[in-house]
UniProtKB/TrEMBL annotation:
Listed name of the protein: SMI1 / KNR4 family (SUKH-1)
Organism superkingdom: Bacteria
Gene3D superfamilies named in the record: SMI1/KNR4-like
Annotated ranges, domain Knr4/Smi1-like: 42-215
One Pfam family hit: SMI1_KNR4
SUPFAM superfamilies for this protein: SMI1/KNR4-like
InterPro entries for this protein: Knr4/Smi1-like_dom, Knr4/Smi1-like_sf
Length: 225
């Protein structure tokens, strides 16, 4: 479970980012060349209220406080936090994989508390050596991936998940907004065939947004020490 204590003081974040950005080897930190250590402006209380009204849900407190006092996106783990912007008169997150967040169902509970793999029940993909012709193999492979997409690539698996960043190779990390795991950070590793799992600290504790973000800051400090 996420620890009962939440961490909502972000007053040091911009100073830490400025210090990291000024380091001569700042580009060595993974993803830094994408987000450039820059946070976009924070949301106003009115903008946050408008966002939550559109989503029909109150965001978990640690992320909510980050939006209000630190920034609406930018510098963060991997290639950075997906920024919030007004798109077609609605608030939306932007980035590689941000579209996986379904704003219309974000208020519905994410039902899972343990790692799960939608692809776990699929057969092994076809082996070219088992087919007499290239055409037969291609037909079997097409059928397999159509089945894969019907089983794995469906929105139902990510209801209640707010996608916040990508790590490349279609790997993403998301915040559980609703359901029994609310406030936890989860990995979507479906691109590697291993499904969804809660992110954990070195001691096995499940990560909430604040520890997830601050662990990245600490690791960046260590990389540039």
């Amino acid at each position: 479970m996420v620890p009962a204590v939440t961490h909502t003081d972000w007053s040091d974040v911009r100073e830490r980012l400025a210090r990291l950005s000024a380091h001569p080897d700042a580009g060595r930190v993974f993803g830094a060349k994408a987000h450039r250590w820059t946070l976009e402006p924070a949301l106003s209380a009115g903008e946050l209220a408008e966002l939550e009204g559109e989503l029909r849900v109150e965001l978990p407190e640690e992320y909510r406080s980050f939006l209000l006092t630190a920034g609406r996106g930018g510098a963060g783990p991997a290639y950075g936090l997906f920024p919030l912007r007004r798109v077609d008169e609605r608030w939306a997150w932007e980035g590689d994989g941000a579209e996986l967040t379904d704003r219309d169902t974000l208020h519905q509970p994410f039902p899972h508390t343990r790692a799960f793999n939608p692809a776990g029940a699929l057969p092994e993909p076809p082996d070219e050596d088992d087919y007499d012709t290239v055409e037969a193999f291609n037909e079997a492979e097409d059928a397999y991936w159509q089945l894969h997409d019907r089983v794995v690539c469906v929105p139902d698996h990510s209801i209640g998940l707010l996608y916040l960043c990508h790590l490349g190779c279609a790997l993403r990390e998301a915040l559980v907004v609703t359901g029994p795991a609310r406030g936890q950070m989860w990995a979507d590793d479906t691109a590697e065939g291993t499904g969804f799992r809660p992110l954990r600290d070195s001691d096995g504790t499940r990560l909430g947004f604040a520890r997830w973000y601050r662990r990245w800051l600490d690791e960046a400090d260590a990389t540039l020490a």
